[in-house]
Amino acid sequence: METKDTYNTIITPGEEVLFKDRNSKFFGYAFPISTEEDSKSIIEALKKQHHSARHWCYAWQIGTENIRYRTNDDGEPSNSAGQPIYGQIQSFDITNILIVVVRYFGGVKLGVGGLINAYKTAAQLALEASKIVEKTININYLITFEYKDMNKVMRIIKEHNLTITKQELELNCKIYISVRKKVADKIKEVFSPLYEVKIDKLES
């Protein structure tokens, strides 16, 4: 079985979308996030922007292999808002994303079925209005070596088209590289004949 080493995400916030049902308005938003803290500040900003709305329901997912997620119904009946929003994150197979649906109550109760449909549709529209990109899951390595081995190391990096993310070239040299997950083990082996060169996987 081939290792899956790509994931879908968005890089810039999607456009605001609007879904209406019986006078209730549901504004949908999609934002790229990398931490839970990111989501908190975005939700706070939306609460200021839509200060007269009734509910700010959301779902987010972070991570590529160790997935974390959260859903919030924000006062709507249990599982009628956050879960349908999260369902769209799953059906679009997307991560590192926050979707918020802001509801203005229109005076008519929609019932749980109506709410599920409204939050799901607003989330779907928000995702459809976003530019989804595919990114690779990368493994980061630290290569440590002495200055005299510089040419050998750089030759391997060049031959294999490796991405250098940071370098500290002093008496003891350190080069940080980022490698696609499915070739990571192979790249580690390429360096093994160089006895004085150390390559360590960094925890992501």
TrEMBL record:
InterPro entries given in the database record: Impact, Impact_N, Impact_N_sf, Ribosomal_Su5_D2-typ_SF
Lineage: superkingdom: Bacteria
Residues covered by the Impact N-terminal domain: 22-127
Pfam families: Impact_N
Cited PANTHER family: IMPACT FAMILY MEMBER YIGZ, IMPACT-RELATED
Family: Belongs to the IMPACT family.
Stated name of the protein: YigZ family protein
Organism: Aquimarina gracilis
